[in-house]
Every structure is written in structure tokens, then in C-alpha cells.
Design goal:
single chain, 350 residues, alpha+beta, Thrombin, subunit H, Elongation Factor Tu (Ef-tu), domain 3, seven-stranded antiparallel β-sheet, six-stranded antiparallel beta barrel, 3 helices, 15 strands, flat
Length: 350
């Protein structure tokens, strides 16, 4: 029976949709990735790929607290710098730290602006009575106390909040611009050559150490009498050394006990031999033997041996790197030690 026009149109439409669907499926199969044969070296990727971000950051020797709490010896005087003269909670606090609000004695009239950042410093006094190789005035030791940021400005005063503190902040502390310092990168680790020859470059001494320390080790901050006038720069490495035979806390004469030498070095009571185990060898010079070739009574001593020996190598005790340079001095961090380091040791640019 012939279909009416409406049914005929519906059938044709369904046939057309079915044909289009078959065509899409055929094209999808023709563009699909070929199957991997067993044993083939090509493997089909399954699942998402995790990409680990790589970094090329160079490891550094000193962190923020070391860089900005180390202190320095300033040759020039402080002039016209702001001063901390008050605090929001001064009625019950005599010292201040992170988050506390303090007041400065300068404002917009002196060029202070909201958002300005300052370093808090405290001059402690002239450097004197230290081991040094330079003559004349070296400078004032300046303790670095912390940092603050100005939050409100009046005409002749400003309010600031302490953002970072190394020690307790006190009224009277001074403010300077935050110095730009960068930690030296870590050098490839190599063995410390304890018998290296001098480089004949700039040479100075360890004058002081942070917190008044005198016996020092790795990561301690020290101050040396080499500065910009000596052409040194941050990142310079120095060898720490001292002359051979020095460096003990106490000085003891280790000379041999050679009493009784006029009687042939025998004991006072038993006289058991013609020589002493407490003495050094006898001299072999003809000036100290008699006519028959016998040794006389005067032995050779340790002092004579040291006096007549050739130039001895220096004793290398460690290594340091400079992190800040002033006019006549520099601040450095000890990076490696072979034995104890102390104030008074010598340093030389590598």
C-alpha cells in the first residue's frame, strides 16, 4: 500500500540521519591511532602526563638574618638620619619587636613618605684594642637591629611599624636606608688545602666577631680590617691562617726539663746513667766536645731548633667569604674550618 506523503517524508528523514551517523563513525575509525603490536617499542600513552617544574636557583650561603643582622664597622659618621623617639605602647614597654609601632623624629617636612622602609641600626662605639694590621681610626661598630616601614606621616613626625627584628628595638636607635646585599652563591665543595702557599694578595686580621665571641667556628660572623680601600668586594673568599706554633689560649713554655746537666744529666739520688731522657740530644759541634771527642754537658734545645730552621709553612685553619664592605673594614662569614678559629687570626684573599 503506498505511503502517504507525510509518512514518506518521515521515513526519508530517518534514513538520512542514519546514513550521516554511519559516515561519522567510519571517519572516526579511519583516523584512530593504529594498534601497537605485541613486542613493539612504541607504547601508547595512557593517562595524563605529570610535568615537574625545574628550577635553576643557585644555593646561597647566607640567609636574611645573616645578611641583615651581621653588623658592620662604619668609618663615616651618621648625619641627619631619623631616630626612634617614641612608641605607641611606651607607657608599658621599654623595648620593641615585630609588629610594634614606633614614632620617628622626622616627617613630611624632612622628606619622609608613607611606605618608606628603613633599617634600624645602633652605633656601639669606636673599634679599639683589637688585633689589627692597619694603623689609625677604623670606624664605629654598628649593630643592625631590624627594619621598619612608615605607615603614617605628619609634618615633623612619622609612625612606623617594625617588620623585622634581629634584637630588641629601643628608643634612640637610628634609621638608614635598607642596604642592598646579596648572599654569595655556594661554591662547589672541594677539600680545604691546609698546605697551600700564600697568594701574596691583600692580607688582614680577624678583629672582632658578632656577639663578642672570640673562639669561632663555621657560620660565625666576623669583622676584618680589609675594606674598599683595599679593593675587596662582597663574594671574595679568604683563607684564615696563623703562624706555625701559635694559637693556644694559654702560653706554656714546653722547653725540656734538663736539670742536672752539669753533672752529666744523671739523677740526683740514684745516678743511674750518664745522660737524661728529659733532655734533647747533645750538640755535635766541635765547640761542645772535649779533646777526646766526648760530648760535653750542654744539650741542644727546642728554642735553638726553631730559631735555626728554614721558613715554615703557615697553619691554615679555615675559610671565609665577605658579605659586606665598608671603607676600611668588611664583614664576613666563616664557611669552613679545619680547627678552631679565633680573633687575631690572619686572613688573605684567595
Amino acid at each position: 500500500m503506498p505511503l502517504n506523503p507525510f509518512r514518506q517524508a518521515v521515513v526519508l528523514t530517518l534514513a538520512l540521519v542514519f546514513a550521516i551517523a554511519l559516515g561519522r563513525e567510519s571517519r572516526a575509525q579511519s583516523t584512530a591511532a593504529p594498534a601497537v603490536a605485541p613486542g613493539s617499542s612504541v607504547q601508547q600513552q595512557k593517562g595524563p602526563t605529570v610535568v615537574v617544574p625545574s628550577t635553576d636557583q643557585v644555593p646561597r650561603l647566607a640567609g636574611r638574618s645573616t645578611l641583615y643582622c651581621a653588623g658592620y664597622i662604619k668609618f663615616q659618621r651618621f648625619t641627619g638620619v631619623p631616630e626612634i623617639v617614641g612608641a605607641l605602647e611606651e607607657q608599658e614597654q621599654h623595648s620593641f619587636s615585630d609588629g610594634d609601632v614606633v614614632y620617628l623624629n622626622q616627617g613630611s617636612k624632612q622628606g619622609v613618605k608613607e611606605g618608606d622602609r628603613f633599617q634600624i641600626v645602633r652605633p656601639r662605639g669606636a673599634v679599639k684594642d683589637v688585633h689589627r694590621s692597619k694603623k689609625g681610626f677604623l670606624g664605629i661598630f654598628v649593630q643592625e637591629v631590624g627594619m621598619l616601614e612608615v605607615v603614617n606621616v605628619k609634618e615633623n613626625t612619622s609612625a612606623a611599624q617594625i617588620t623585622f627584628s634581629c634584637n630588641s628595638v629601643m628608643l634612640g636607635d637610628l634609621l638608614t636606608r635598607v642596604p642592598l646585599r646579596e648572599s654569595p652563591p655556594v661554591r662547589p665543595e672541594v677539600s680545604l688545602d691546609r698546605f697551600s702557599d700564600p697568594t701574596n694578595k691583600q692580607r688582614g686580621r680577624v678583629m672582632m666577631a658578632r656577639d663578642g665571641r672570640e673562639m669561632l667556628t663555621r657560620n660565625d660572623v666576623v669583622y676584618i680590617d680589609l675594606g674598599s680601600e683595599d679593593k675587596v668586594a662582597p663574594g671574595d673568599y679568604l683563607t684564615i691562617y696563623r703562624p706555625l706554633g701559635t694559637g693556644t689560649v694559654t702560653r706554656i713554655d714546653n722547653e725540656e726539663n734538663a736539670r742536672g746537666r752539669t753533672s752529666g744529666f744523671a739523677s740526683d739520688r740514684f745516678r743511674g746513667g750518664g745522660y737524661s731522657i728529659q733532655a734533647q740530644r747533645a750538640k755535635e759541634s766541635t765547640a761542645f766536645t772535649d779533646g777526646h771527642g766526648y760530648y760535653r754537658f750542654r744539650p741542644i734545645t727546642t728554642k735553638e731548633i726553631k730559631r735555626d730552621r728554614p721558613r715554615m709553612p703557615r697553619k691554615i685553619v679555615g675559610e671565609m667569604v665577605i658579605i659586606d664592605v665598608q671603607t676600611r673594614t668588611a664583614t664576613a662569614v666563616i664557611t669552613r674550618v679545619a680547627s678552631e678559629v679565633h680573633t687575631g687570626d690572619w686572613v688573605e684573599i684567595q
